[in-house]
Predict the structure.
Amino acid sequence: MALMPELPIEPLRELSAADSRVPILLTGLSAAAVLGGTGDLSLIRETRGADMDWGGVYGEGVRLSGPWWMRFGLPQGTRWGLPESLTRLRSSRTRVESHHVTPPFRCDQEIVALADRPGIGRRLTFSSSLNVPTTLQVEATFRPELAPVLIEGIKPFEYDVLRTPNGVRVTAFGSALEYATASPSDEIRLNDRTWDGRPFHGALDTVSAYTTVPIGPGQPVTLSYLIWGGVEAQVLAHPERTAELLGTAQDWAATAEASQRSWTARTPRLTLPAAPELERGYRLARDALRSLYFAPEPGFVGLVAGYPWYAALWCRDLAWMLPAVLWLGDAAWVADSLRSVFRFQARAALPILGGAAGELPMQIGPGPIFLYGTSDTTLYYPELLRRYVAHTGDESLARELAPPLGLIERWARGKVDPRTGLIRNGDEAEGLREAAEEHGRVHYGFDAVDTTIWDSTDRRLHAVDIQVLWADALAALAELAPVLGLSPDGDRWRVEGETLRRTIADRYWWNEEEYLFDSIAEDGSPVRKIRPNALLAVARGLLPPNRAVAAVTRAARTDLATDWGYRTLSSQDATYNPISYHDGQVWPIASAWAIGAAFAVGDATRAVGELRRWARRLDQEAGTLNECYRGDRPEPFDSCFLLGFSVAPFLTLLFDGLWGLRPRVGERTLVIAPGFPPDWSQASLEGLSLCGGQVDLEWERPRMTVRWHGPGPLQVLGAEQRLDLLDGGTGTLEFSPATNTS
Amino acid sequence: MGLRHLRGDVALLREAVSLIREFGLHSTERLAHVAEFLERSVYAPRSLHVAPGGAAFTLLNPPLRVGAFSAIRVSWDGRSVPAEHIFVQREGQAVERPATDITPSRPIDLRPGQRIDVRLAGVPTGSGHHRVRLELQNIAIPPLVWFEFTDSVSEPTGH
């Protein structure tokens, strides 16, 4: 029997045999299911060098359960599970359908991440080919976890368990889950021992519920199961929720699907006849990004960094995702995300959390819980706000965030070396270490000395990408100054930013390598390491053209570039290790810097070639993309199977680089400087949200037709032409065959 | 209680007040839950006990980092314990592994919720509190993970 025939699945994965290592992710706005290709919520994945099971239910930033298995038995004792009876499994972003046959029984399962509740539902429909009534015993067993996802590798040792009308409630250290089924259980066992239902406190490995299902000839029976939860206070505040959710079990999949489709329908439509793999990559990356959306409680909105082990808001990662969300037309989500991050800006020093006044948090989890201590996170946000204002024309958010922006500037100035104008990195977590030494009888931590995006290696004291981010922040503040009512400061910020850009171009240039030093040490000596981070400076146009081209060429050499992306460190470096997280592994985000640099020097062929490779990998990985790969072969190692900043920059580059789109603050102006390869002749982009309206672009070499629908005028600037469009207006720009963004 | 500890408590109180003012009581409660979770979920309380030739204790979870570890070092009251005197036994494994046997090519895998018994031979188990520090080296992420606790040594408890 097919499940929900009125709602056809659009599968990302299809399997005909169980595979416990194929990662599958289902997400709602505050829940996720992580599973492999077996039908159970179990996923074996190498993590930091060892295999672990990451399967289970995640809600409100808490890993609620570990693996969750279903097993079946006959009265005479024969038992079997879902993996060994699997005949077909298909997964989409919102649900998994799996089909299992053990004659004479058939089980059709549907697993759904609830659209807007922190839970996962499973519906199993049983049928029998026998001509007589029969019974089947169904066992549902899960491992409680109840560990905030922000904390790696630690699960509670002891739990409290209470019987509820439909199942059990499990709590530990302020987190809670409810397990429930619509059909009454014959027996519930804790740690595989009979439980009398009285409140339990103690070590807990498994919870099992047994249900006897009578099945008549031609009369399928459906059982619905649910695990939901998160922060204990929120669970206790909703005693009605379990019954409500079980009462709507037949609608779980349709509701999740409708939510996904409604969002997708509002995103731009991209057509690239010369590169169908980029079109598909666009759709896959877009939907992957949407699967990271996270809104667990009022005032807490954003996108989680990735799955399975970075399923919280990491504000650096969020900063790499929000530009793509903006291009996809969800400005409201961007605004709410920015508000969420700024809500946790440290107003004063918070050493116990590693925070300094003005700093934005590194991580935020529901509750909320949060932690500071990075050198780069805070620096991204002025530019993000600039993008938001330019894109939407909405200046109110910038005015609302003007005081926090002032705090950011003060925080950054406190880190600038007055002798050089360079900003420091690496001392942000010292307060946290000292504070941790002072409190409690148990202490722990890492001897990590640095705080950049590659935070497991030492790049002190003036990493090149941190300087670029500070220059970006100054430029963004300068552009926002009139909106903030700080026009006189704008000139100062602009001059300071330009001075810093020249300083970076001069002081970091490495003649022998025709590249940029990775950092400058405390004594002023250059750190002679080849890393892809330097390409950010090229992408931002900081170098003279000849040096910029030389740097892009240098980065393409095989010690840094591989067929599967860019290493975090040259393989010729003495400290290179192909399995070292930040000293040798290949990270997709580094490709973003290389592609941005290639577009910046006008090398569209190289840039688009890299984008094609990125898109193919998105396809190979069935719409997810790994965090990182080994440096010596294209094999994920110590890698989340989906990371937001492995997919979002791909999207951003399609708009920023390939189409060369840049809206300007306060001018209702869109600048277009496309980076199409010389052998392309057509492309179109429809439904691009901008300034409260929509833009359609249709390019047929050499002409680009621009259509505008929206309130007020829109000015469009091409290479040498300008269009002034009113609502419903159309105009044409011309781009020469050698079009590029340099 | 030393003055340094008192200073710490005052500073903590000041920060807690600041947190409540800036981010609300809910947040402070949740952070307190996390702190309690961290404090109680790694070192098994009162598990430090006399063991043949020295002392032993139990971890309920790996400290803040999971995965494969290529080295484990321990210090006892600030003195490094020789690797040949350190023995580790994971839950579900029949025999102890000496720390000398743990190398990059033969790492030890540590998983969430997995108990780890650590035995230290030759350490002085006299009365009073002892400070124990573990350092673990993961094969994928270089920064050392460290964990410290202070406890007194009890007689054998069957751990």
In short: Chain A has a mean pLDDT of 94. Residues 664-734 of chain A form a domain with the Maltose phosphorylase, domain 3 fold (CATH 2.60.420.10). Chain A has 18 helices and 45 strands.
